[in-house]
Amino acid sequence: MDLAIYDMDRTVTRRATYTPFLLHCAVRRSPWRLVFVPLVVASMLAYLLKLIDRGRLKEINHRLLIGHWIHPKDLLPLVQSFADRQVTSNIRPGARAAIARDKAEGRRVVMATASYRLYAAAIAERLGFDDVIGTGSIIGLDARVRAKIDGENCYGPAKMRMVADWVEKSGLTGKHGHVRFYSDHASDAPVFEWSDEPVAVNPHDRLAKLARERGWRVEDWG
Fold first, then answer.
1. Has this prediction a pTM greater than 0.70?
2. Which of 12, 41, 164, 207 shows the greatest Cβ crowding within 10 Å of its Cβ?
């Protein structure tokens, strides 16, 4: 089966989703947690100064705005309302067209995102994706979702490793056909290089330069 693999933030969506998701949860469940927004900003500055990595940044902000843990029954309505909002107002028109085209071609349509799978999967389901590869969350024996990443943050080289792992676990090693990959960011270079048909979507400067050098197709999804 041929594959179509999509990054999510700023590829399928117009804007990033992670911090908006945390703020959505805080506003709807624990508005008092908004007092921690200055600490969220401080953690982002620490990331820019390379004092922490992206994975640690996510864990810190998750803990600040959602808490150390949350039960799935409390998290589910927050995920569903956030996904509804994103699908209504934050999806690129070109992404909808590409997904429809790839499905019409019989491709298995997969989302591969650095965002937490716990909410990316809800967005993907609404858009008709078949599978989701994303950053996992540790779930304790009490079933509570923890503010801790399970495994790797699905970003950069780790995304390629997680895509390869998904291919193997799906029984597609040596069996899948043509792979088309869409992303807006140069951090996805490993997956671009691995794919048969790399497509740079609304690329930022570094990716636009890389696409010119490699001869990758560039598309504007509006």
1. yes
2. 12
